[in-house]
Amino acid sequence: MLLTQIDHVAIAVHDLEAAITYYREAFGAEVHHREVVERDGVDEALLRVGESYIQLTTGTRPDSAITKFLESRGEGMHHVGYRVDDCGEALAAIVAAGGRAIDEAPRPGSRGTTVAFVHPKGSFGTLIELVQE
Predict the structure, then answer these.
(1) How do beta strands 107-108 and 3-12 pair?
(2) Cβ neighbour number for residue 80 with a 10 Å cutoff
(3) What percentage of the chain has pLDDT greater than the value 90?
(4) Is the pLDDT of residue 9 over 90?
(5) What is the pLDDT of residue 1?
(6) H or E stretch including 19?
(7) What's the structural domain count of the chain?
(8) 36 lies in which domain range?
(9) pLDDT-based confidence at 99, cuts 50/70/90?
């Protein structure tokens, strides 16, 4: 089994501060990690839930994938991040099984991780992020 656990569920939001406040007031959740990922044009807040996270994310520029998602689909679930021991190995296995890689090779992600995205057209309609700590 290449997937070791769910790393995070990403939720795209228009107003990150309002979403953080909602999760704090509704669930008592606190921000575990906050980061702007310039490469992807996103601002994210990770809220720990057990050994996983809820990732609240918003775009920081018009060309970011999150900004485009919000414009076309509105707020909601954006992707699921699965933790793996070896991102390159997992990505190769997905491609070999007929999946479509968005990232041709693993790349740096937030909080010092290595990540790769898999297109939803090759994974039954769900955008997948592979996350190696």
Answers:
(1) unpaired
(2) 16
(3) 98
(4) yes
(5) 86
(6) helix 16-27
(7) 1
(8) 3-132
(9) very high
C-alpha 82/C-alpha 80 separation (Å) is 6
Q: Which residue has tokens 């991102």? A: 87
Tokens of 71: 């414009």
CATH code of the domain containing 42: 3.10.180.10
Spatial CB neighbours of 89, under 8 Å, sequence gap ≥ 6? 2
Span 78-101, average pLDDT: 96
Q: State pLDDT tens for residues 17-65.
A: 999 999 999 999 999 999 999 999 999 999 999 999 999 999 999 999 9
Q: What contacts 56, CB < 8 A, 6 or more positions away?
A: 11, 13, 16, 19, 20, 23, 44, 45, 46, 47
Structure tokens at 57: 């994310």
Of residues 78, 92, 103, the one with CA closest to residue 14: 78
